[in-house]
Amino acid sequence: MEYRKPLPAPTPVTRRYWEALREHRLLIQKCMNCGSSVFYPRMFCPKCLSNNLEWVESEGKGRLLSFTILYSTSYPEFNDDLPFVLGFVELREGVNMIANIVDCKPEELKVDMEVGVVFDDVTEELTLPRFNPVRRSTA
Predict the structure, then answer these.
(1) Cα–Cα nearest to 82, from 95, 72, 92
(2) From CA 23, how far away is CA 16, in angstroms rounded?
(3) What pTM does this model have?
(4) Sign (positive/negative) of CA torsion 125, 128, 43, 58?
(5) For residues 62 and 66, what is the distance between their CA atoms, to the nearest angstrom?
């Protein structure tokens, strides 16, 4: 089935991020001058303006800071997904991401719940990060 929703276009700055997602790895940048974690991919550290950034692998776990449940959309490509959840996730490395929250009924969502990254291979060339609740084993 063909993916009909809008897709990001990797740039020279973001290319390594998208390549890693394709490998089911979540990368963020780390400033080698001030030690800050950086996301979204950039050419310069937003804290100290250094261009000495390296890619590091994120654990892919964090907490849900906030979310919204979309029951309607102006984009017809997303109508079949309604309702869907956009979450504001703080990764353990200290950076924030906006992504879909999946595998969870909207009424089960709670601010501060633990979430982990899952990888959605939407095309042969592109994988999108999504997050789902971290379920604790009762065993």
Answers:
(1) 72
(2) 11
(3) 0.91
(4) negative
(5) 12
Q: What six digits make up the tokens of 31?
A: 């400033």
What is the DSSP code (8-state) at residue 135? P
> Please, are residues 116 and 131 in contact by the beta-carbon 8 Å criterion?
yes
- Please give the pLDDT value at position 49: 98
Confidence of residue 14 (pLDDT cuts 50, 70, 90): very high
Q: What is the DSSP track for the chain?
A: ----S------TTTHHHHHHHHTT--EEEEETTT--EE-S--SS-TTT----EEEEE---EEEEEEEEEES--S-GGGGGG-SEEEEEEEETTS-EEEEEE-SS-GGG--TT-EEEEEEEE-SSS-EEEEEEE-PPP--
Residue with token string 């890693």: 20
Interacting residues of 4 by C-beta distance below 8 A, sequence separation 6+ = 77
